[in-house]
Amino acid sequence: MTHAWLFTGPPGSGRSNAAVAFAAALECTDPHIIGCGTCEQCRKVQRGAHTDVVHITPRELTIGVETMRTEVVTPAAMLPTVGKWRIVILDNADRLTDAAANTLLKTVEEPPAHTVIMLCAPSTDPEDIIPTLLSRSRHLYIPQPSIDDIVAILTRTDNATEADARRAAMASGNHIGRARHLLHHQESQIRRTNILNLAELIFHGSQAFQAVTSLVKTATDEAKNSLAETNEQELEKLRTALGMGAKGRGAHKALRGSAGQIKELEKLQKRRETRAIRDALDTQLVDLIGIYRDALMIAAHAQVSPIHPDMQGLAGELSTIGEPNLLACIEAISHCRDDITHNVRAETAMDAMVGRIRKACNVQ
Ligand SMILES: [Zn+2]
C-alpha cells in the first residue's frame, strides 16, 4: 500500500471528491464490493463523519508550518480507532509554504504503518507541489468532466431540466460545483451577467470603470458576509479559551497575553477574506475571458460550442473587432488575473484591464 497519494486535476474536476471516494473504499467493510458506498464505514467517510478520516480544506492563502503540525502531522501519527486506516486528506496542497511542505515531507518519508495521506492540488507543476513531495507520492490525474457528464449529473441528482442543466454546465467552464451553484443560486447568475455586461459597457464612455468599482465592492461585501459568522464564532471561542472576561487576580496579566493571540486570529481571518474576494473575482474574470473567446471563435468561423450560449448576440458584436484585438482583450484579462494574484489592488488591476480592453476595442 502506498502511503502518500497526490490527486491532481483542474478546479471542478472533483479531485477532492475522488480522494474522499478512495478513502471510503479503504475503510469499506463490505466483503464483496470494495467501496460499496452503502456500508456504515463508507457512508461515514462520505458524510465527513468518520473518526479515522481527517479532511482538511484550508481557506487561507497559504498553509503554514503550525497548521501543518496541528492539523496534518499530528492526526496522521495517530493509530486508527475503528477503521483499517488513518487517513488525512489535504485539499489545496498547492497553498503549502515551503516550510510546511518540508514538515509534511518527514511524515511522507517515514509514514506510520496504518496511515495514508492524500494531497489534492491543481497540477504536478513545481509551483503547485514541491518536487520532493511529488516524488514520494503516487500520482493520480483526475480529468475535467465533459459538458455532457455535468448535464447527466445535474439532471440525475439536482432535478434539473435538461435545458437548465446544459445552460449551467456550459457557463461553468466544466466545473461541476460551479454549474450546480449557477443552477440553484440566483445571485451567482446575476454576478455572471454583471461581469459579461462589462464587455458591452466598454463601449459606453466611463461606465465600464464605474462597473468595476461596483463589481469589486459586491465581491468584497459578499466575502465579508459569508465569513462574518465563522469569524465571530472563532473569536468568541478563542476569547472563552483565553478566559477573557474573567475578573480577579491575574486576569489583567492574562488579558495582555491574549491580545497577541486575538491579533493572530484576526490576521488569519483577514487572509481568508482576501482569498475569498480574489477567488470570487477570478471566477468572474474567467467568465469574461469566455465571452471574448466565443467572439474569437465566431471571428475565426470555428465550429465549436460556445462557453456562454445565452450571450451569443454580444459575442457576435464583439467578433467584429477582429482576431488580433480579441486576443489583446483576452491578454488584458489574463494580465489582470495575474496582477490580482500578485497583490495588486483588485480595483487598480481591473481598471488597468478596462483601459487595455478599451484600447483593443478602439474606444476613444
Ligand atoms: Zn462500504
Automatic annotation (TrEMBL):
Pfam families: DNA_pol3_delta2. One of its GO terms (biological process) is DNA-templated DNA replication. One of its GO terms (molecular function) is DNA-directed DNA polymerase activity. InterPro entries: AAA+_ATPase, DNA_Rep/Repair_Clamp_Loader, P-loop_NTPase. It is an enzyme of class 2 (transferase). Residues 1-146 form the AAA+ ATPase domain. It comes from the Bacteria. Its EC number is 2.7.7.7. PANTHER family: DNA POLYMERASE III SUBUNIT DELTA, REPLICATION FACTOR C / DNA POLYMERASE III GAMMA-TAU SUBUNIT. This is DNA polymerase III, delta' subunit. It comes from Corynebacterium matruchotii ATCC 14266.
